[in-house]
Amino acid sequence: MKAASLVLFAAASLSAASYDIADILTASTAADTRAKDWKPGDGLALEVSGMDWTADGKLALTIRKGEVWLLDGVLTPKPDKVTYQLFASGLHEPLGLLRDGKDLLVTQRTETTRLRDTNGDGVADEYLTAGAGWNVSGAYHGYAYGPKRDGQGQLWITLNLDMGDHSDNKAPWRGWGGILDKDGKFVPMVAGMRSPCGLGTNLAGDMFCVDQQGTWIPTTPIYHLRKGAFFLNPEGIASENRPGSPLKLSAKIPEKRPYPEAVKALPEMRPPAVWMPYNKVGRSGTDLVTCDAGGKFGPFDGQMFVAEFTDAKISRVFMEKVDGEYQGACFPFVGGFASGIVRLNFAPDGSLMVGMTSRGWSSLGTKAYGLQRLRFNGNAPFAIKEMKAKPDGFELTFTKPVDVARAGDLASYRMTNYTLFYSSAYGSDEIQTAPNPITGVQVAADGLSVRLKVDGLRELYIHELHADGLRSAAGESLDHADAYYTLNRRPKN
Amino acid sequence: MIFRTAILLAGAALGAEPLVTGFERFHAATPTVEGGRLLYNELGCVNCHGGVTGLPAMRGPALATVNQRVRSEWLRKFIADPASVHPGTVMPQVLAKADAQTLLAIEHYLASLKPKTASKAPAKIMHVNGARGGELFNTLGCVACHAPGKGFVPPDGLPKDAEFTHRSVAFGDLKAKYSLDSLATFIVDPLKVRTDGRMPKTTMVRQDAVDIAGYLLEFQGSDGRTDVPVVSVAADKNLAIAGRKAVIAGQCAACHDLPKDAAAKPVALKKNEGGCLDADHTKGPRYALSDAQRASLKLFLAKKDEAASPKLAADLTLHALNCVACHERDGLGGPDAARKAYFQGDHNLGDTGRYPPPLTGVGGKLRPEWLANVLTERPAAKGADLFTTHYSGEPYRIRPYLKTKMPYYGPAVADLAKLLGVADARAPLKFEGGDDTAGRKLLGTQGGAGCITCHRWGDRPSLGVQGPDISNIAARLQEGWLREYLIHPAGYRPGTLMPSFWPGGKSFNPTILGGDTDKQIAAIYKFAESANGEPEGFPQNRNGEFEIVPKDRPVVQRAFLDGVGVRAVLVGFPTGVNLAYDGDKGGPGLAWKGRFFDAYLTWFSRFPTFEKPIGEQVVAWPKPAGRFLGYRLDAKGNPTFLNEQGGVRVEETYEGIENGLRRTVTWAPTPDFAPTIHHPAGMAMDVKHHPEPGRRVFTYLWK
Question: Does B152 touch chain A if contact means CB atoms closer than 8 Å?
């Protein structure tokens, strides 16, 4: 288990001063699972696809091969004595894991399964069907994700669209998300997703999901999941006519137009709470977790961290409610991980476990798979902590007091806004870009926030801020000077 | 690009002269006729002045596509003063007057050469991983000639600067020269541009080349679509005509392939000094020759019409192509101490697992047609479809464990195999007859030499360490060499792990073919030649790759399975019988004997689809109609499937027995319920008499 070395191009996004990456186990090379002579028997191919913590503090994880492993000792300062125990095997590409009392719930391609160790020998002996009711055609891309539990205790599952041979997106619930009822039956709740790979709640217990750019999805979105919502991709919409469907579109799909026009033309369409602009904040979002670490992960409690596959990095998201709907900003956070990130999970000690596998797709990083741990080292970063919408602009809050002179200088800020094109094409360029002149700035007495007066605000557009001129009172530059606010609604007061 | 060995270049006069690695490494210390011969060829002197070097022609890069390949600014600077842009280049400064107008004219002339049928533009680069490219660049063999790149630390640590014994082929400012796309296109097949094979072609897929280019260009991010393309000028007719005149005056066609109307004239030599040899001459091309280069050239000029012996021509060709960067020959060459660190492979095979084989006597070792294939084009892909994924799909290799890949040099070196054959000729030996049945035994583990313990056989992995493939020794090796090698392997390669089974010519096995060494070796050769089966001792089932073989416990694996559906739960029992259960409707689906399951698609492929049982005697049950609730495993690993039929819970346990399955069905008995129990067609069934209420036991046996 060699340490992650050689991260050549990540320096720009690596908050190395505040966060440290440590290897638990990574592949020996980037080729590894891609190489012709690789086989599963070569050590433990930790292609992490789901993570949670057992009642006795072990890290339970699923790997894509279809196994569940229990890892003990991952939270020691130097994780060189980690033990690995095989808990379950023979599953079909499980992509999510959740502890339920003493049991583990895993979602395989075809069902959610309750794994129970009834004789206490540390190995599952019961594999009970705990959730089913969606079609599986045999298409390679027919993934199922979850479960994740919301604040009301409901278990959520999301279902990928089929792609390739055997695809059948007209069959039940592909591209949909839903909950499991008490008999384990899938109850559809939301539609219009493509690769809804990552589920997670915020501290209020509301359920969110990160999808990925692709057909109909112009860039990675974060959806707030709630009954009756349609998001973006209509390829699986045929299931709206099935019994149990919570929605029925009242208008034709408003394709080939700027997103703000599309969303106005289709009442059931709900805008993502946050758009993550392509390349600027990663390319393919895969998971999200909310930080509740009591300061142990730095000054970002209550915020979301979003995993990204292609660039092997993590972004940060701040959300607020405006008129009862979530919206907010995303910020670059930390990059330079060993492989494409698929799963994130906060450890009891406030560090962040990072599960990776890039088999089948391309990612940055030099390894094919692995598990790393991201720890806050106590050196608080100088960062834009929050970006809040105001009727006439934005309020920024910071993790440290700012240099008042620079913060009060209009020239320290630059803002533009743009939107995306809604069509069946794969991804979208930014369109209709326009400047947002900053017309006023007011620095709070404690130096921890500024109010920006901004012209040209447009609802449903992404507002991109660059605050390169800012310094902390101690003279530090921002860890990332860019922020991206999805202004679905402009607050009235 | 700042490379480590740039430090070596700084300061000293060393480094200003054109770099011919083979000369600098083996001939620079003392001026010799041989060294002069090498330079006279590699600096292109022979292309104007004639003579007989015996070496494959050095040609400049193809120019018809140069405008699409390299950036215009760079091209003009390079033509004006090649060495200032590309240190160590063998391209001399040819323009007497490198004014902007002349350079522009030449650029337009070159643009006018564009082939009429423009090649199809490659697909846009979606993804680039520079870090991965760095690993490839530093391990594939690029650093045998070029300087290792920064940011990469070989497993044994970074070498010291002093351990680099010769200069590396420099890149100059690659960012100024190439786009990501054009550099990747060059890397994936350099022979299209460098037809003379001086930059050979390493087999790779385009994504590999893109990643390497991303590394070399220090490409930021992962989205190749942000690449800044090379924009070529549209040729202006009048400028092109002026450019052609400048090209003729510069004698460019002597080294570059150009249309006839730009041909260069031969330049007869009147004496063996002056001219190009002088540092400050003004007429003709200017080379910044070192004293050592000049002295060697002078020695050779006196003998430039004398043919080289085959041995000398062969050796110098290996120096010209820099084969000796990786391979030793007659105790010379091989990677220097610094570069050794970058040669990686399978440590189980020791040094032979990481360094390419020696070339000592290679012309007497390999069959000429095989050697020609190795040099000019790879043998046909064999087994390449085994694990073709996004990133692999490699052609067949004898030594896949070497991370360094043997590149090929293209048709320009077609004569080298023949030349080596003459230079290294050994006394001919032809095996007479040969008993291939005995050969099969000798190669195997059942009383033979156990060759397959360490050697792969075609696409069959060996039983232990994965040494070179020996299935094709008859096509590859000369008989005389094989005999000599088998008797004394270390004589060819000191330190090899290969033991001798015929030490001093005496066989290890006196019973096969009467212990006759010659007959035994001939038998091995004959068996390989016959391609009739494989040596004794490979396990009957292909236990390797992704096949699941139940050993001491049943193995459960879910998959998409033809005949059962997407929710198939497969169970392989150690008795060699297998079951696929319907994890949807709750009932048995298929059973079969023999091999259980190959999990390649399920465990590895991005594109899994329906699998099939890989054993034999498949039997099927009628489709069940209940509901599947899961399964549990008992202490022995036998599964009990949990189902519901008409509201009643029905459980059934399966055990693998010899040639069959035992099925025990249980339910809570009630007067008005009897479970539906189907049986497979084609198996003999034994029902236990006097069944207990709520319990049935069936034994199924294959007929």
Answer: yes
Give Cα B267 to chain centroid, integer Å: 43
Respond yes or no on whether ipTM tops 0.90. Answer: yes
List of chain B residues whose C-beta atoms are within 8 Å of the C-beta of residue A114: 630
Inform me whether the C-beta atom of residue A84 falls under 8 Å from chain B C-beta atoms: no
Phi, psi for A65 (deg, rounded to 5): -60, -20
State chain B's maximal CA–CA distance in angstroms: 118
Contacts of B382 in chain A (CB under 8 A): none
Domain residues for A397? Answer: 384-487
pLDDT digits (tens, 9 = 90+) for A276-330: 999 899 889 999 999 999 999 999 999 999 999 989 999 999 999 999 999 999 9
Same domain, yes or no, for A152 and A255? yes
8 Å CB contact of A310 and B631:
no
Residue contact A111–B131, C-beta within 8 A: no
Residue of B210, B401, B558 to mutate, interface with A, max A Cβ within 10 Å: B558
B632/A127 touch (CB, cutoff 8 Å), yes or no = yes
B183-216 b/e (C-beta count within 10 Å ≥ 16 → b): bbbbbbbbbbbbbbbbbbbbbbbebbbbbbbbbb
From chain A, the residues in CB contact with B223 under 8 A are: 279, 283
Same domain, residue pair A120 and A231: yes
Q: Residue B387: which of A36, A89, A93 has the nearest Cβ? A: A36
Cβ neighbours of B550 in A, within 8 Å? none
Q: What is the pTM of this model?
A: 0.77
CA-based nearest residue to A107, from A196, A18, A7: A196
Helix, strand and coil in chain A, % to nearest 5: 5, 45, 50
Q: Which amino acid is at B74?
A: W
Per-residue DSSP letter, B602: I
Domain final residue pick, A376, A395, A415: A376
| pLDDT tens digits for range A230-271 | 999 999 999 999 999 999 999 999 999 999 999 999 999 999
Q: What's the rounded Cα separation, in Å, for the pair B570 and B566?
A: 11
Question: What's the full length of chain A, in residues?
Answer: 493
